[in-house]
Structure formats: structure tokens, C-alpha cells
Write a structure and sequence with these properties.
seven-stranded mixed beta sheet
């Protein structure tokens, strides 16, 4: 192996962006990951029978308002122009999310104009009804809390669109990599200054004297000396169906508490430009179930409360004492990042 002068531990969005920047600055970089493949939770697999790109860890849609991020990522992939739209299946009916005129008028059987939405939503009967239908059960399942412990006032803090825009994200730049997410990571790491080793976890003390950029779980890095950080995890059930189209869109949320999963993904809809795949008389769906996390499980969502954030700060203080160690990413910072936020953070790191 060539001589290295920088190590990136963790080959997700944050780590691969850091690695590319280091290599372009003339550094010899070793990228390691404990998994057998790169890509982190954005990793996808192509179904050999249908050609459908399956998002192995749930749906990922790249979206951003950050021009620096958009310009950077488009050096490594072309996007297909996909615009994300999400349905919520409540009480036997489908409603377009997010909360806006399309949902409100259908749910209440009204025909409000944009100027009427604000006063309508100030009525507690209306806000409570919407909370109970679309937020209470979903949030309870997502975070493992009983519905009674969830504050209905949360809906008054949720942005309400006073128009018929049903695009799920406000970001004007969005899409799916035209040749798939795996090609994005392959292109980011395709540099003569980068060497990749998978199935190789990082431990403190490895690579003495070399600067390390670490994006794994920060508590695991210190062998959980102060205790485990709390996370919510997920599990997935994938099913192949002998029909052309199951639900007509990529994601349908299931907010009702009596449905054990939170959403169903149907992946072929992420590539509407691929007419051959769209025409297949098979489709692949994935049901997503929130789960309690225990050591050894995949962590997805940090549980942010006063105690967990204080514990994360203790680990960050320990990390700050170690020369040549830079902590980042969702697992390292104990902070949920969208993909563009993770990339933006990596672009700001001093290398």
C-alpha cells in the first residue's frame, strides 16, 4: 500500500466528500469502512431481475438549496430531475403531504383559498384534528413514545403551505443520481490519491501520527466508557410483487397507530426516466418499521434530549483532546443530517 498521510474512517457522504477534498489537495488518503461496501446508509443495490435500484436502508432523495453543495456533487453525478412527492394513507384514504391546501381541503371537505388558511388553522379544533390524523400515530411509532406523551401543539409549529404545492421538499435542486447512488460514491473515490479498504473498522491508536477523519459512532470510538448514546433504529421488509405498480408513488406514509410500519417505499418510481424498468410487470416494495436500538444494531436517528446531548458532549470533549482526530457526520456528531447537510459540513472542514 502506498504511503498515506490522511485516513478517512467511514465511507458515507461525509467521509467520501472529505476524502475527495484531501486527495485533490495532494494528500495520500486511505478510506476505511467496517462494512463490506462504501456508501453508508445511502448504499443501493440493483435488483438483477428487474433492474430496479433498491435503497438498502430506506429512501434517500438528494435535495438542497446550497449552491456550493449542488455544484460540488454534480461534478460526480448527473441527476434525473426526480421531484419527491409523498402520500399519507389515513383511515383508508390517501392525502398529499406536506400540510397544505391539497391536504386540508380534502381532509375537511372544504375549498379554502390561500388567504383563508391561516385563520382556519388557528382554530384548535382544526389543528388538533390534523395532528391526531397525521402526526400523533406516526410520531409515536417513529420515536417509541405513547401517543399521550406527544404534544398536540407541535402542529402549530409545523409549516403550513398556503397553496397547492405538493412537492415534499422546498429545495429547488433535487433528484436521484441518474446512474444510481453507488456510482456517486465510486466517482467520489475515483482518484489516484485514494485507496479504499472495506471490512476494516477503526480503533483509537490506529495510524499513529496520521490525521484521521472519523464519522463512526462517537461512543463506540471510546468503547462506551461513559455509556451508550440512545438511538432509534429501523428494520425493513422487502417484497417482490408481480404487478407493474403497487402504490403509484415512491413513498406512502402510514400515520395510523394500528399499522405497525411507518411507510412503504416503491423504488421503481425514483427513475421515471427508465422506461424499461417502469414497464416491468414486477415491482419491489419495502416496509419500514421503527425499532428500539441496542448495541450491534444500526443507529439511524439520535434521540435528542438533555441527557443524551450532555453525554454526546462528554464524548466530543474526549475527542477534542486527541491530536490529529476530526469527528464528523451523523454518527460522529450525534446529529441527524440530511445528505446535503452532511456534504456541506464536510466542505467546511479545514483539511
Amino acid at each position: 500500500m502506498q504511503e498515506i498521510n490522511a485516513v478517512v474512517a467511514g465511507a458515507g457522504i461525509w467521509g467520501c466528500t472529505i476524502a475527495r477534498r484531501l486527495a485533490e489537495a495532494g494528500r495520500k488518503v486511505l478510506v476505511i469502512d467496517s462494512r463490506p461496501v462504501v456508501g453508508g446508509n445511502v448504499r443501493c443495490e440493483i435488483d438483477p431481475e428487474t433492474g430496479i435500484e433498491i435503497h438498502s436502508y430506506g429512501s434517500h432523495i438528494f435535495h438542497t438549496h446550497d449552491d456550493q453543495v449542488w455544484n460540488f456533487i454534480r461534478r460526480f453525478t448527473e441527476f434525473n430531475g426526480y421531484q419527491h412527492k409523498v402520500l399519507a394513507h389515513h383511515n383508508g384514504k390517501n392525502y398529499f403531504l406536506p400540510l397544505g391546501l391539497t391536504l386540508i381541503n380534502k381532509f375537511f371537505g372544504t375549498e379554502l383559498s390561500p388567504s383563508e388558511v391561516s385563520s382556519f388553522m388557528k382554530d384548535e379544533r382544526h389543528s388538533t384534528a390534523l395532528f391526531d390524523a397525521f402526526f400523533r400515530g406516526y410520531t409515536s411509532k417513529q420515536w417509541g413514545k405513547p401517543p399521550e406523551s406527544i404534544d398536540p401543539g407541535i402542529i402549530r409549529r409545523v409549516p403550513v403551505r398556503e397553496n397547492y404545492d405538493i412537492n415534499y421538499f422546498n429545495d429547488y435542486n433535487q433528484g436521484i443520481p441518474l446512474r444510481g447512488y453507488n456510482s456517486l460514491f465510486e466517482n467520489l473515490l475515483d482518484h489516484p490519491g485514494i485507496t479504499v479498504e472495506c471490512n476494516r473498522p477503526y480503533k483509537l491508536g490506529d495510524f499513529p501520527g496520521v490525521k484521521v477523519f472519523y464519522s463512526g459512532p462517537i461512543d463506540r470510538l471510546f468503547d462506551y466508557r461513559y455509556g451508550e448514546l440512545p438511538w432509534r433504529s429501523l428494520r425493513f421488509e422487502t417484497e417482490r410483487l408481480n404487478i407493474t405498480d403497487y402504490q403509484g408513488t415512491s413513498v406512502v406514509n402510514y400515520p395510523d397507530i394500528d399499522v405497525p410500519y411507518t411507510r412503504i417505499h416503491e423504488f421503481k418510481h425514483y427513475h421515471p426516466e427508465d422506461k424499461a424498468v417502469m414497464a416491468k410487470t414486477q415491482t419491489i416494495i419495502m416496509r419500514e418499521y421503527p425499532a428500539n436500538w441496542k448495541k450491534g444494531d444500526e443507529p439511524y436517528y439520535p434521540i435528542s434530549n438533555e441527557q443524551s446531548l450532555a453525554l454526546a458532549d462528554k464524548y466530543k470533549e474526549e475527542a477534542a483532546k486527541i491530536p490529529n482526530l476530526v469527528i464528523g457526520g451523523r454518527l460522529g456528531e450525534y446529529k441527524y443530517f440530511d445528505m446535503d447537510q452532511a456534504m456541506a459540513a464536510a466542505l467546511k472542514i479545514v483539511i
